[in-house]
Amino acid sequence: MSKFGYEKLAYQRRYAKVYEAGARFWEEPAPTEELVIYVRQMHFPRGTNVIEVGCGEGRDSIFLAKQSFKVAAVDVALSAVKRAKQRAAEEDVSIDFVVADATDLRCFPSFTYDLAVSVGFLHMVINKEDRQKHLNETLRLLKPGGFYFSCNIGGEKRVRQGHICREAPKPGELTPRKIIVGGEEKEILLPIIAAWPKSGQQYKAEFGTAGFKIMKMFHRVTRPLGSCWIIVAQKPAESGNIFRPSSDDAFHTSFFL
């Protein structure tokens, strides 16, 4: 498994190939649908501090900025962050984009953010220690009572680390992906990156080990990722100062614990 470890530059290479093939952006501009529902039902106040880890081209960060959040956004791929800045300028929103590794966020101060967002990042980290570092770092950045919204691929069955890369195709091999070039769809080949999509119980255990309290957790096919576990976790409040939504309909959904 070690040869398929969390390789930070793999993401930079994939984005670079997409842009070299002529695409202006890889991702669709629409934000993650479950994040939209969560934000609109929670009624966070204007100016709420939020950090997105693994922001890619800024799809969700731009949505958050348009909802009057104060947004910081992190991704390890320099090329993706450059495109995110371009898109944010076009949408006339202000976002603090930073090129950094989401497993090492020491460049950000502790107890700063009311909300952290991770969409499609955690399942891409296959090293157990790196996953825990990310969760520990995110907990550190949140204010007491702050929330972490996580939307990552997973299923019902437990997945062991040693089974991740046994099926073909394997990490490093090329796989066809669709991009848009000049308004038309084009197929290109991109190297596969190893992933560790977990079961709900596995995700729950990771968050619990880091010190989070799971508030909501459910499994759903969501756009654009597909079959995901959506988790809303909270950092324990030291003084009882926990943010409460301003309406009774806050993020109603079925969930499994």
Key features of this structure:
257 residues; alpha/beta; Rossmann fold; 8-stranded mixed sheet; 6 helices; 10 strands; 29% strand; globular; disordered C terminus
Task: Profile the largest sheet.
Answer: 8 strands, mixed
Q: For the residues shown, what is the average pLDDT?
A: 85
CATH hierarchy: architecture: 3-Layer(aba) Sandwich
Instruction: Give the name of the CATH superfamily.
Output: Vaccinia Virus protein VP39
Q: Poorly predicted ranges (pLDDT <50, ≥5 residues)?
A: 162-166, 239-257
By DSSP, the count of extended strands is 10
Integer tally of domains: 1
Question: Can you walk me through this structure?
Answer:
This protein has a single domain, classed as Vaccinia Virus protein VP39 (Rossmann fold, 3-Layer(aba) Sandwich). The strands form two sheets. Strands 1, 2, 3, 4, 5, 8, 9 and 10 form an eight-stranded mixed β-sheet that branches. A two-stranded antiparallel ribbon has the order 6-7. It has helices at 8-20, 33-42, 59-66, 78-90, 128-141, 200-210, and strands at residues 49-53, 70-75, 95-99, 113-119, 142-155, 174-181, 184-191, 198-199, 213-222, 226-234. It has 257 residues and is α/β, with parallel strands linked by helices. It contains six helices and ten strands, in the order H-H-E-H-E-H-E-E-H-E-E-E-E-H-E-E. The radius of gyration is 18 Å and the shape is globular. It starts with 7 loop residues before the first helix and ends in a 23-residue tail after the last strand. Helices cover 27% and strands 29% of the residues.
